[in-house]
Amino acid sequence: MFSKRNDLEVRSAGTSADALARVNARMLEWADVIFIMDDHQRRSLGDMFPAHPALERVVCLDIPDDFNFLDPQLMRLLQERVDAHLDD
Q1: Does the structure show a pLDDT above 80 at 70?
Q2: What are the domain boundaries of the chain?
Q3: What b/e readout covers 52-77, taking b as 16+ CB neighbours within 10 angstroms?
């Protein structure tokens, strides 16, 4: 949903082994900010990339990772919580 915005460059990746696109070190280095859904994803990133400097740019949105793809409630939560962290 954020990739449609002209003012952002967005990449999406998961932390699980079966993710369509799995996060890698190059993505972490590219990102100005890294949004995650929950603390499980924070732990996963820490396990995958111990002491990586980009982990300081992680923002946890505190959204349970149990919604269906494109669930309207999830879209609203993402919009509200991500927008609060973006520069105007």
Answers
A1: yes
A2: 2-83
A3: eebeeebeebebeeeeeeeeeebeeb
Of 1, 37, 3, 5, residue with least CA distance to 19 = 37
Mean pLDDT rounded to a whole number for the chain = 93
Q: Which residue has the tokens 């396990």?
A: 47
SS3 labels along 16-73: CCCCCCECCHHHHHHCCCEEECCHHHHHHHHHHCCCCHHHHHEEECCCCCCCCCCCHH
d(CA 88, CA 85): 9
Q: What is the largest CA-CA distance in the chain?
A: 35
Question: Cα-Cα-Cα-Cα dihedral of 56, 67, 13, 75, to 10°?
Answer: -80
pLDDT > 90? residue 87: no
